[in-house]
Amino acid sequence: MFKQSVLILAVALTLGACSSKKLDPAPVVDDRTSGSQTGGDAAGAGQSSVTGVDASNANANAAGPQGVSNVVYFDFDSFVVRSNDQQVVEAHARFLQANKARRVTLEGNTDERGGREYNLALGQKRAEAVRRSLNLLGVGDAQIEAISYGEEKPAAMGASEDAYSQNRRVEFKYQ
After folding, report:
1. What the protein does (predicted)?
2. Across the strands, what pairs with 35?
């Protein structure tokens, strides 16, 4: 009887560990600034304030566009590209459009909170969100690969909110 109870408990714990939180589909892009990007009048309202990327020296640059971050950060338990990181995505989109032969791998990462399966799924959704943003800006799927490392490749060690926020990211890796 004791063995059966232990076996039932072990099966229940195993099944409980395998369950994961279902991710809700959410918008890919945070549109908190949508009010500032309406229209397209003659004065240039709605134009991006991002400085241009110099793509003339692109072949010598194996790391991607010069002067642009290769990381997009995310809020906790979210795969929505934040409005302040949209400029980074736009700069990489311009670089990829100017360099059609270049390919980029989008590496999705999470902090250590959550189960392994959940973090792998969340990392993949973050990478796919950046991919969709690049697609919307005109970059073809042939230039993009989206993968997830979940919590396996932390950028910062520790259990502080600062470390967690550095680990919730997608990195652009050019080939």
Report:
1. Part of the Tol-Pal system, which plays a role in outer membrane invagination during cell division and is important for maintaining outer membrane integrity.
2. none
Give CA–CA dist 44/37, Å, rounded: 10
| Tokens describing residue 30 | 């945070």
What structural domains and CATH numbers belong to the chain?
Answer: 82-174 (3.30.1330.60)
- 10 Å CB burial of residue 69 (0-12, 13-18, 19+) is middle
Cα–Cα distance, 168 to 95 (Å, whole number)? 24
Residue 63 binned pLDDT confidence (cut-offs 50, 70, 90): confident
Torsions phi, psi for 35 (to 5 deg): -65, -25
**Geometric angle at alpha carbon 160, from 86 and 111, rounded to 5°:** 55
Region for residue 9 given its phi and psi (left: phi exceeds 0; alpha: psi -120 to 50; beta: otherwise): alpha
- pTM of the entire structure? 0.67
Q: Name the one residue in this structure whose structure tokens are 């072949």.
A: 59
Q: Is the dihedral of CA 126, 132, 134, 139 positive or negative?
A: positive
In the predicted model, what is the mean pLDDT of residues 123-143?
97
DSSP state of 5: H
- Mean pLDDT of all residues in 141-151: 97
